[in-house]
Every structure is written in C-alpha cells, then in structure tokens.
Amino acid sequence: MPVPVALGSYSYVAETKEDLPWAELVTLDLSKYGTLEGNRELAAFLLTALREKGFFYVKNFGISQADVDRQFAIGREFYEIPLEEKIKYVPEGLDEGAFNGYVPAGRRIINEETGLRDRVEVYNIPKFNGDFAHNHPEVIQQHLPEIERFARALHSNVLDPLHTLLALALELPEDYFTRIHTYGKKSEDHLRYMKYGKFTPAENASLGGLWGRGHTDLGSFTLLFRQPVAALQIRDPIEHEWRWVKPQDATLTVNACDALSHLTGGFVSSTVHRVAVPPKDQQHVDRLGLLYFSRPHNDVLLRTASESPVLQREGYTQNQFERSGNPVPTAEEWTFAKQKWQRRKNIARGDREHETATILPGFREQVYA
To answer: According to the lineage, what is the superkingdom (predicted)?
Structure first.
C-alpha cells in the first residue's frame, strides 16, 4: 500500500509591495442571499458588476479558508511529483480538445525569436456525477473525497446563487440558468490546479511584460481563488484599459465567460483577461492557481434567452450564431471546438491565422494584446 501523502500546511508568498494600477472591483456579499429583498439587491448588483467590470469578488460563500488551503496544498503536492509520473495522465485526444487530466507545459511558443516556450502546467478534475472516469495519480486519489466535497460546495454555494441572481436580474424565472447548470447532469465543469513556472529575469524581459495574451474563457462563470502572486490583468469593458487584479482575503474572483455571453445575446460580455509577468519582487517564485470552470449541460443549445424582458428592452435578442444565420451549437460542440483551438500545439505567439480563427461557423476569435 502506498504511504499517504502528508499535506502539511500551505504558506502563501508575500504580496507585492509595488504600486500597481489595480482594478476597482466590487464585492458581492452572499450572506445577503436567500431573502426576497436580499436577492433583489444582489441581482441588481450582479448585473452592474458584469456589465461595468466583468470581474468581481464574492465573499461569504460558506467554504472555510482551511478548506481552500487544503486544495492549494494538494495542488502543490501534485506539482512536486516527477514529470514522468504526471505525463501518464495526459488525456487521450489532447490535440483534439480533450482536457481532463494533465496538460504539460511547453505546448506554445511565447517568444518566436528565441524559441522560448510557456511554462504553464494544468491538472483538470471533472465532475463527480458518474459521467467521468476518475483515474488520478496517488496524491490526488488519496484526497479525492475532500476534492469532491470542495467541488460540489462551489457549485451549490457559489454557482447556484449566481445563476439564480442572473435570472432574476434578467426578469426570467429564477431557475432559468440553474436548471441548465445542475451538478447531476453531464457538463464539462472542472476544478483546476494550475502552475505558472517562473522564468529568469532575462527571459521575463524578453516577453514584453506578458506570460499569456488576452483571452476569454469559454464557459459560464470562472471562479478563481485568491493567491498573492500578482499577474492577472483584466481589460475594463468600458474604458478598455488593462488593470491588475488585487488579491483580496477570504474572497473568490469571478468572471463571465463565452457561454454566458451567447446565452444573453452579448448583453453580458465575456471578460477579456491576461497573465502578465509578475512584479519584480515576485518573479522568483512559481504561481499556483486554484480555479473552477462552470459550463452549461452538454446538450444545451447556446441560444439567446430572448424571452427575457430585459434583453428585449435593451435589444440583445440574438447572439453571433443567430445573427449570422449559422447553426447554434450545443455547449458540448462549443466547448470542444474552442478547446481544440486552445490546445493546438506549437503555435507561436502572434500567429494571426490562429488568433483570428473561426471556432465554429458564425464565431471568429479576436486578437487581444
């Protein structure tokens, strides 16, 4: 029998002391959720946050900091195992858009002149609803029950309230979005441990200030746990200026994604964000991330919720697929088409053909700095 891995405590690195242009994000307080008055207030707050910032913080979501720290510790221990062990868990069909399991670093060229490749490693864990095999390395397998509890809590404590509040904000039945985002039905939700390996000062200087170019996420909401290595930047949806996202204690950072934009006819925009080279006082450490990606059920057609009185009044009754006359994809078709585009190997940063590729008829990618 393998010896169980002792996780120990998890220590966060010190926050940067640099004075950065931080984004002024608002915080949604879920302690107010569950009453008629509280839900009405939060629904209006959520819609303003989504429309004016795209990113926002959530607090009082009912998961202890100790439980969050445990997940960071599991991620830390996973990335300590040898590459030859991790590589056993690369998903079959990675180049075709498969993503559950281990995605190794180095698939993208981030400096074509020097041949420098990315140092991003990803481990994705799918839903625990019976639709997915759970074959993991021992360090994950030993802690699978608490990982499942954590993932399910994120769904019930954070995503269900957000989807309910969005429906209320759009004057739709309050279960409009929750019923297409249930945990029990197959969708491509996943929990992610993500590591950005550090670069040397000279390598960082060659990257033009960016580890990762501007992009949007493909699902409904992304949940990002606080970690203090400053690198996440968002593009303000109104002013179109880049701002750093400051780590806030006891919060989640949340952003809207492509599927939600499709479902609302673009009224809720998919938020553009990127990963910058960290400030100099944090460039000596790796950056470990803990995230959860929410997606609609695989069989859901990503059509606009045009029955929403709000979308009707505001003139957002068709998404890009509907306006172009092309077939509206299911969430599964959309997910794997965009994942295939994202996972394409040996693409160099700045490849215009790739960066503006047609993901599906009616939707082309855009170039972001």
So the answer is: Eukaryota
Provide the pairing of β-strand 120-126 with 27-29.
Answer: unpaired
Kindly report the CA angle at 56 between 55 and 60, in degrees rounded to 5? 150
Q: 340: which 2 tokens?
A: 């295939």
How far apart are the C-alpha atoms of 320 and 167, rounded to whole Å? 21
The count of other CB atoms within 10 Å of the CB of residue 211 is: 21
Instruction: Give the bridge partners for 266, in sequence order.
Output: none
β-pairing verdict for 27-29 and 55-59 = parallel
In angstroms, the CA 177 to CA 309 distance is 15
Q: Coil, strand, or helix at residue 157?
A: helix
| CB contact at 8 A, 216 and 257 | yes
Indicate the pTM of the whole model. Answer: 0.96
Q: How many CA atoms lie within 13 A of 243 on its CB side?
A: 20
What are 97's two structure tokens? Answer: 């858009």
**What CA–CA distances, in Å, run from 190 to 1, 22, 111, 186, 286?**
29, 29, 30, 11, 22
Contact 292, 191 (CB under 8 A): yes
Paired strand residues for 221: 256
What pLDDT is recorded for position 238? 87
Distances (CA, A) of 275 to 115, 208, 224, 231, 242: 19, 12, 13, 5, 11
Percentage of residues in the chain having pLDDT higher than 90? 95
Q: What local confidence, expressed as pLDDT, does residue 1 receive?
A: 46
Structural domains in the chain, CATH included, are 27-364 (2.60.120.330)
CA atoms of 262 and 47, how far apart (whole Å): 16
Report the candidate in 264, 258, 234, 272 with the shortest Cα–Cα distance to residue 359: 258
> Could you tell me which of 93, 96, 105, 157 has the C-alpha nearest to residue 292?
157
Q: Are 133 and 92 in contact (CB under 8 A)?
A: no
